[in-house]
Design a protein that fits this description.
two-stranded antiparallel sheet, single chain, mainly alpha
């Protein structure tokens, strides 16, 4: 039997071993998985977007010298906190409004714009600028 055939046989054996161990891990972690599911569902209900997702990662470490295979599955609830902050563009000069100006009211044809509307316009303008920059770069212009 060639070395390549032996390696394939070992990989098939590894595959069978991992597949056999995953149900054992899930049974062992049943209570923790149930707690994680409950936490995910509660968190999803609190959020506006409310999508409940539980990720279970199965990993295998194969000690090729000792032929040992450790199959593991961590179960925990990760909470991701995210904030988006805008950096000043060094290529855009700041408007001479003074340092003490906290906000500016923009008056449109029939009324004023609230901060949420202004934020949406800023995001749209930023995306538009990024698209234009990308088109210029793809066209080879600088």
């Amino acid at each position: 039997m060639s070395a390549e055939t032996k390696a394939v046989d070992r990989i098939d054996e590894l595959k069978r071993l991992i597949c056999a161990q995953v149900p054992v891990l899930i049974d062992e972690a049943r209570d923790n998985i149930t707690e994680a599911i409950t936490a995910c569902m509660e968190e999803a209900q609190e959020k506006e977007e409310g999508k409940a997702v539980l990720s279970l990662a199965i990993t295998a470490k194969w000690d090729l010298d000792g032929s040992a295979v450790v199959v593991s599955m961590p179960v925990n609830v990760r909470r991701k906190f995210q904030v988006t902050a805008l950096m000043d563009d060094p290529n855009q000069p700041r408007l001479p409004l003074g340092d003490d100006v906290e906000s500016v009211t923009i008056t449109t044809g029939g009324g004023s714009m609230n901060p949420a509307q202004a934020e949406r316009i800023l995001k749209a303008a930023s995306k538009s600028g990024n698209r234009a920059r990308q088109q210029v770069e793809e066209g080879g212009a600088s």
